[in-house]
Amino acid sequence: MFTPIKFVAIISALSLIILMTYPLAVFIKELLENPECLKISIENVESINNTFVKAQVSIHYCSTIPLRDLRIVIGESEISFDTVSKGTFSKLVILRVNDSDVKNIEFKVAGLYGFKLRLR
Questions:
Q1: Kind and range of the H or E element at 33?
Q2: CA–CA distance, 59 with 16 (Å, rounded to integer)
Q3: In what order do the strands lie in the sheet with 102-109?
Q4: Is 115 within 8 Å of 106 (Cβ atoms)?
Q5: Confidence class for position 52, pLDDT limits 50, 70, 90
Q6: Please, are residues 55 and 93 in contact by the beta-carbon 8 Å criterion?
Q7: Domain boundaries, given as residue ranges, for the chain
Q8: Rg (CA), the chain
Q9: pLDDT in tens, 53-85
Q10: Is the Cβ–Cβ distance between 64 and 107 less than 8 Å?
């Protein structure tokens, strides 16, 4: 009696699951194929004084799935990017002289799946 409704509900649920997991699956696949797909570099470092330097932080990203709310913590400085899509994105920042290591990277894959990486 309710067989057509059950069939529609099952097809709808499966479609929703596929649509929700597709961006994460593509992101993981592209990262596994090319580990250099998400690369962070600190370039053009210029000394301001004995304590601070001016530097350009660049994100090189090659995946077709956009990253949202990307946050990078370098020392005590936090650099934020709203949306990172395929290409290179840069920001000019002021860093302490001793702060050259990336501590945390936080982002959302397609705005759905949040990741936080703590580097030591």
A1: helix 3-33
A2: 32
A3: 77-84, 67-74, 102-109, 113-118
A4: yes
A5: confident
A6: yes
A7: 3-118
A8: 20
A9: 898 989 999 999 999 999 998 888 889 999 999
A10: no
Tell me the whole-structure pTM to 2 decimals: 0.77
What 3-state class would DSSP assign to 11? helix
Phi, psi values for residue 7, rounded to 5°: -60, -45
Of 68-72, 79-83, 102-106, 107-111, the one with minimum mean pLDDT is: 102-106
Q: Does domain 3-118 have CATH number 1.10.12?
A: no
CB atoms within 10 A of CB 87: 9
Q: Which residues of 20-47 are buried (b: 16+ CB within 10 A; e: fewer)?
A: eeebeeebeebbeeeeeebeeebeeeee
Residues present in the chain in total: 120
